[in-house]
Specification:
Number of strands: 12
Strand content: 25-35%
CATH class of the largest domain: Alpha Beta
């Protein structure tokens, strides 16, 4: 069985407060975009290995025990029985981008195992497993636009449809991380309700009102990311923003963007009316 885990973008992101457990409460809107990896699972009948893994595409430089798919397999195997498996991941979504590619792989893997082996896991169990793997991982279980709060794992449904727009996601040759994004950032409760802004305002009115707080720290450390956002606006984006903790930046366009992306940048263009799973 093969599935195609997709990434997400953040429509706005506010760091609201620091929690007693050391994490931060945030507010954001997760929106799925069809920049995909490919994940295949078959029964492993050729060896006694319970979890056999192979990988192609972009390199994942971690030891097997730190691979999020291995961690997912361990958690699912603790609550359900299924045969030895062989897993292959073709990695296409860039890492260190703020696109949630790893979280998507884990969530799609949970759903794939449940479907392929008829595990009949309730949604509550899927969400619980996903929540142990990453704050945004649970989002990809249902993979529909949501307003997220708490650590990014408390969801409310939201009315948001960008299917009539072109969405260009660009990843510069810069790898930021969440720790860098929080560096020097002071949590502030937003004056305006993000969910209300996204639902009520047309996309062309988002500029200047819907912001990603992480841009403040990432733009200082990596000016090229700021320049990338500015270039998207210069080339006709009605709204542009960094996604998550970066360093990927996306632009929302009413017309097909005619932008030359540098050779050392990775990018994906979602065309209008592309269906969201």
């Amino acid at each position: 069985m093969v599935v195609f885990p997709n990434c997400k973008i953040n429509l706005g992101l506010h760091v609201v407060e620091k929690r007693q457990d050391g994490f931060h409460n945030i507010e954001t809107v997760f929106y799925p975009v069809k920049w995909c990896d490919a994940l295949e699972v078959i029964e492993n009948t050729s060896s006694t290995e319970q979890f056999k893994f192979s990988q192609s595409g972009l390199s994942i430089d971690v030891v097997p025990e730190q691979n999020i798919l291995y961690k997912t397999w361990k958690l699912v195997s603790e609550v359900a029985k299924f045969p030895n498996i062989q897993v292959h991941l073709h990695k296409n979504i860039p890492m260190g981008a703020g696109l949630g590619g790893g979280s998507a792989n884990a969530a799609f893997f949970i759903n794939l195992l449940d479907s392929k082996f008829n595990l009949q896991l309730p949604d509550s169990k899927k969400f619980f497993i996903a929540s142990q793997l990453g704050s945004d991982c649970s989002f990809f279980i249902n993979n529909k636009p949501v307003f997220a709060s708490g650590k990014g794992d408390e969801f409310q449904t939201i009315s948001c449809d960008l299917s009539s727009y072109y969405i260009l996601v660009v990843m510069p040759p810069v790898h930021s991380n969440t720790r860098e994004a929080y560096d020097g950032l002071t949590p502030v409760k937003p004056q305006k309700d993000l969910k209300d802004l996204v639902e009520r305002l047309p996309v062309k009115d988002w500029k200047g009102l819907i912001k990603n707080d992480f841009e403040l720290s990432i733009f200082k450390k990596y000016p090229s990311v700021k320049t990338l956002k500015e270039s998207l606006y210069e080339n006709g984006a009605v709204y542009a923003s960094m996604s998550g903790s970066g360093s990927a930046v996306y632009g929302i366009f009413e017309n097909n963007p005619e932008i030359r992306v540098p050779d050392d940048y990775r990018y994906f263009l979602q065309m209008p009316d592309k269906k969201i799973l």
